Amino acid sequence: MKHIYVSYMKRALMILTLIQILSNAANAQTTYTINSNANWSTALPATCNACTINIAAGVTLTVDKSETCQNCTFSGGTVSINGSNALNLQYTGTTVATTNFNGTNLVANGTAQVVVNAPIALNNAVFIFNNTSSMTTSYNVTLTTSTIDLYNNSSMTSNGPATTTVNLISDSRIVIGDGTKASSAIFTVSGPTLNVYDNSWVAVANQNNVYYNWSDYNYQHNVNANSNSAKAYPSSGLNMNCGAGFAHSCSNPALYGPATVGSGVTSSVTLPVILDGFVAALNNDHTITLNWNTQMEINFSHFTIERSADGANWEAIGTVQAKGNSAVQTDYNFTDEQPLAGTNFYRLTLVNMDDSYLYSSVVVMRSATIAKVSFFPNPAHDYVNVSLGETTGNQVTILLTSISGRLMQEKTAATGSGVVVTFPIQNIAAGMYILTVVKGDGTRESSPVLINKS
Predict the structure, then answer these.
(1) In CATH, what class is 374-451?
(2) pLDDT value at position 389?
(3) Are strands 374-376 and 314-321 parallel, antiparallel or unpaired?
(4) Most exposed residue of 46, 94, 256, 336, measured as fewest CB within 10 angstroms of its CB?
C-alpha cells in the first residue's frame, strides 16, 4: 500500500509540474520589433497572445484585417486601423491583465473599431478616431498624460458597473468633436465611474457633440491625495446648450457643447493653445520673419499676424492656418515682406473655432539697416567675423545671441570703413544663433548664423 501511495504522489507531482510549465509557457511574453512600416497580417499572428510589440519612432503598424491581441503591450510608433477592420484587445487566462500603450499613437479611420475587453492603460499616448470609427470598453480605462480625440462622427462608449472606472490623470483629456459644426462625435459613459485628476478634463466642442453619462463624476486635483478630497459633480440634469435657441432639445443626460467637464461643468469649452518661442529676426533682404510654435492645440482655428508702428495701433498683415488639434509641438512662421521703416511691433491673435480669441506677447524689431554690414563665414566653425563696411556714426554694439534670446557674447566697436570684428566661438555649442549690430540711435540689423562643429 505504501508503494502504491508513493507512486500516486509522484504521478500527481509530475502532473502539477507539467501544468505549471504549460501555464508559464502560455503566459510568457513574445516580443515583436517593428522597424519599418508593416501590415499586421504579415508581421504578427492574427491572434497575438502575450505579445510585446515595439514599434520604432516614425513607423506605422497597419491593422489591415480584423486582429486580436491578448495580454499585449505596445510601445512607440503608430498603430493605424482603416476601413471596417477591428482591433480586439482582450485578456486571457485566470488573471485579468491590462493592455498597455506606452508612447504609442493609434489612428482609426473609416468605420474601424477598437473593441476592448480588458483593462487598458494609455501612457503618453494619443488615440485619434476619424470618420465614424469607434472605441468600446468594458473594463477600467486609464489615461496618464494622454489624449483621446473623437473627430468627425466618431464615438467612444465605456460600459460596465460603477466599480469600473475611466480615469484621466496628469493633464489627460478626452476631446469630443473636431471643432467643426458638422461633427457629431459622442462619448458615452454607460455605468462606469468617471474620475478626473490633475487638471485633466473632457471637452465637448460644439452643439452637435455630446457627453452622455447618467452618473456623477469625481474630480480630484491630485491623484495621490486622500480620496476624501474628491468632489462629485452631476453629469445629468444640466440642460446646457439645449432647448430654445439651440440645435437640440434638452434630453437628459445629454450634455451638448461647447462645455468642459473638469473641476465642475462649464458651458464654454476651454480651448487651450500653449504658445511658445515667439521671436522675430531681420533677414539680409530686410524682410522680417516671425517664428513661433505651439505645444498643444484644441479646437484651434488660425493665427492673425498684427503689426504696429507704436505698439498701440494695430493692423492685420496676414493669417496662418493652425493645425487645429494637436498634442505635439507644431512650428509656424510668417515673413513680413514690407516692414515699416524704423520700429515694428508684432503680436499674434490666436483665434479658436468658435471665434473667441486671445493675444500673444509683443515682439519688437527695427527694420532700419546699417550700410553694408556683412557676416562671414556662415556656417562658422571657430570664429565669425562682422564687417562694418561704410557704417556711419561713432560706435556700434554687436550681439551674438541664441535663438531663445540668451546673450552669448557682446562687443563694442568704433565704426569706419573696413572695420572687422571677430567673435571666437570655439566654446559655443553647434546650432543656430543671431548676430545683431546696434547703432547708437537704436537702429539694428540682425542675421542668423549657423555654428557648425562637424
Answers:
(1) mainly beta
(2) 60
(3) unpaired
(4) 94
How far apart are the C-alpha atoms of 365 and 406, rounded to whole Å?
Answer: 16
What's the angle, vertex CA 134, arms to CA 131 and CA 137, rounded to 5? 165
Angle CA 438–444–449, to nearest 5: 90
Q: Kindly report the CATH number that applies to the domain delimited by 273-366.
A: 2.60.40.10
Listed by start position, the domains of the chain span 29-266, 273-366, 374-451
Q: 242 vs 188, 209, 210, 258, 429, CA distance in Å?
A: 18, 12, 11, 11, 58
Phi, psi of 42 (to 5 degrees): -105, -20
Give residue-wise pLDDT tens across range 4-62. Answer: 555 555 665 666 555 554 444 445 679 999 999 999 999 999 999 999 999 999 899 99
Measured from the Cβ of residue 299, the count of other Cβ atoms closer than 10 Å reads 27
The three grid cell numbers given for residue 365, joined into one nine-digit string: 524689431
Pairwise CA distance, residues 365 & 434, whole Å? 13
> Identity (one letter) of the amino acid at 210?
V
Q: The whole model's pTM is what?
A: 0.60
